[in-house]
């Protein structure tokens, strides 16, 4: 495994990457079609090479890589399957397509989700029978080629929208390989930065870059929408532009949007928590509420301590509580709001084990009050306070402007966007 990583320049300690490499090595000895899924910039192009180079026979044949998204729609059939002389204006001679050139070897179709419908039909025929026809020809030709495809498109969604053939998807997806985004491989971020910094230092004979502890935290928690490609570009920009070799957060802010840095607080797990990438954005709001929850519980403990000492309580015995079980269904979490937040009134039925000024084993009664209602109310108040300025409102809420924009649309708030 480590030898393969060194050979292809893969810097990773994440188990998901090791799993992807393992699958690529296992499938290399077969002729099964492989579909590589992953966001743009994660390094999908390494895996078709691993598959080709470790095959028994095809490694001696041609390896052809095509970016389907970069070929104009009008010429994509000609590029992939070739054309005859006079097939169209400018076809002054017959030309082999990539499937002919790769006969006996491997063809890598990057961004396969961008192929037009007519080309998808031609590709399906090649996968099923190995047959194709050049543009402008009626002669059926055969090719023996291993197809590895990659996409950053949500193919099931594209199928639902009628943009991608379902039968082609199942043909391509015989063996799936999933490459995780860089933000899910936090332990690899600093390793990659160090590698890119060392490479550019050696290339241009300049002192290497170093990060301050705060900059390391910021870089590790940044969202990295462009993944490894973006990290490499940022590292190269800093190395060339900045005179300072010790990079702090202030310098880093010139190259990445600090507003997009994710919270580094721990995530509260849940059986029913959403698995989509959208969950990471929800955490920013949730942690805001958890902070308020901690303050309110501390206040409740203080008041219970006053009661145990025989002092007059500062608040009514009926304490309104609101439930956050919509977001944490596995845990009996109830939050004691401030007095101004009149929600629903329920008594806490049992508090046991009172020792001094400490509450032990308090039984919490969940309520049905929705977290989304609180989100909406907080967002409305922040926007009202800042006269509709999203940037200032997001700062007050402790979330990114992008998250605030999405929440405004989600709750259909009457705000000029």
Q: Which H/E pattern describes the elements?
A: HHEHEHHEHEEEHHEHEHHEHHEEHHH
Helix content: 40-55%
Q: What is the β-strand count?
A: 11
What is the radius of gyration computed over CA atoms, rounded to a whole number of angstroms?
Answer: 29 Å
Class based on secondary structure composition and strand pairing? alpha/beta
* Overall mean pLDDT: 79
Strand order of the largest sheet: 2-3-6-1-7
**Shape category:** globular
Sheet with most strands:
5 strands, parallel
Low-confidence stretches: 262-285, 315-369
The count of helical stretches stands at 16
Describe, in plain words, how this protein is organized in 3D.
- The structure is a single chain.
- The protein is built from 16 helices and 11 strands.
- The protein is an alpha/beta fold.
- The strands form 4 sheets. The protein has a 5-stranded parallel β-sheet with strand order 2-3-6-1-7.
- A hairpin with an 8-residue loop joins strand 4 and strand 5.
- The longest helix has 30 residues.
- It is globular.
């Amino acid at each position: 495994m480590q030898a393969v990583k060194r050979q292809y320049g893969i810097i990773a300690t994440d188990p998901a990457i090791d799993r992807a490499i393992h699958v690529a090595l296992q499938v290399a000895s077969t002729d099964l079609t492989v579909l590589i899924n992953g966001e743009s910039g994660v390094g999908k192009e390494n895996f078709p090479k691993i598959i080709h180079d470790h095959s028994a026979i095809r490694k001696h044949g041609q390896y052809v890589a095509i970016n389907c998204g970069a070929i104009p729609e009008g010429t994509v059939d000609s590029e992939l399957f070739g054309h005859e002389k006079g097939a169209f204006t400018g076809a002054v001679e017959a030309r082999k397509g990539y499937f002919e050139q790769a006969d006996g070897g491997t063809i890598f179709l990057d961004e396969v989700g961008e192929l037009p419908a007519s080309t998808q039909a031609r590709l399906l025929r090649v996968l099923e029978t190995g047959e194709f026809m050049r543009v402008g020809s009626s002669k059926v030709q055969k090719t023996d080629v291993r197809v590895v495809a990659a996409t950053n498109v949500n193919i099931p969604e594209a199928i639902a929208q009628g943009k991608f053939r379902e039968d082609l998807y199942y043909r391509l997806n015989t063996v799936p390989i999933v490459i995780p985004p860089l933000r899910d491989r936090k332990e690899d971020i600093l390793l990659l930065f160090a590698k890119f910094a060392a490479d550019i230092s050696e290339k241009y004979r300049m002192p290497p870059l170093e990060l301050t502890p705060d900059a390391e935290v910021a870089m590790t928690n940044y969202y990295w929408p462009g993944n490894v490609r973006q990290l490499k570009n940022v590292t190269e920009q800093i190395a060339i532009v900045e005179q300072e070799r010790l990079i702090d957060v202030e310098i880093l802010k010139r190259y990445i949007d600090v507003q997009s840095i994710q919270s580094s607080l721990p995530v509260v797990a849940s059986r029913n928590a959403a698995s989509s990438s959208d969950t990471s954005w929800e955490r920013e709001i949730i942690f805001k509420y958890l902070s308020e929850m901690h303050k309110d519980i501390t206040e409740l403990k203080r008041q219970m301590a006053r009661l145990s000492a025989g002092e007059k309580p500062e608040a009514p015995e009926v304490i309104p509580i609101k439930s956050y079980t919509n977001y944490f269904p596995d845990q009996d979490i109830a939050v004691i709001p401030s007095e101004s937040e009149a929600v629903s009134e329920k008594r806490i039925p049992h508090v046991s084990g009172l020792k001094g000024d400490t509450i032990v084993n308090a039984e919490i009664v969940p309520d049905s009050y929705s977290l989304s209602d609180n989100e909406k109310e907080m967002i409305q108040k922040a926007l009202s306070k800042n006269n509709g300025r999203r940037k200032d409102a997001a700062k007050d809420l402790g979330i990114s402007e992008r998250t605030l924009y999405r929440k405004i649309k989600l709750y259909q708030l009457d705000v000029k966007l």
